[in-house]
Amino acid sequence: MIPTPRHKEKTPCRGCGRAMHWVHNVITGKKGPVDPTATVYVMLDEASTDHPDAAYGMTAKAFMENVETITMEGGRVYTREQIVGFFVSHFQTCPKANQFSGGNKR
Predict the structure, then answer these.
(1) What's the predicted TM-score (pTM) here?
(2) Dihedrals φ, ψ of 35, to 5°?
(3) What are 81-106's pLDDT values in tens digits?
(4) CA count, 13 A, side-chain hemisphere, 69
(5) In whole angstroms, what is the distance from residue 79 CA to residue 72 CA?
(6) Cβ–Cβ contacts within 10 Å for residue 88, how many?
(7) What's phi and psi for 101, nearest 5 deg?
(8) DSSP structure string for 40-92
(9) Which of 34, 36, 48, 70 would suit a FRET pair with 85, their CA atoms being 20 to 30 Å apart?
């Protein structure tokens, strides 16, 4: 059995006990928890023809199944295989987020 790389392991939240991943934000340099179960949507800048009060969009999972590469500012390119997914900060979904440093996270 091949072990799961440490950065892909889920760890339980000390507050609510739900599984989460840790990410190192390459923009801010900070480490933070993300919720691997929350559904995330990609919203496009185009109004739906069927529902003019709504934008076109899709789940991040569907987006990833249909994208080949993503190019970051500065030119760095990531392939679909290199992108694990899109996640919501666990501070947004944890019912006990305010007990952690930084004050009330919700």
Answers:
(1) 0.70
(2) -95, 115
(3) 888 888 999 999 999 999 886 654 44
(4) 7
(5) 11
(6) 15
(7) -55, 150
(8) -EEEEEEE-SS-TTSEEEEEHHHHHHH--EEE-TTS-EEEGGG-----EEHHH
(9) 48
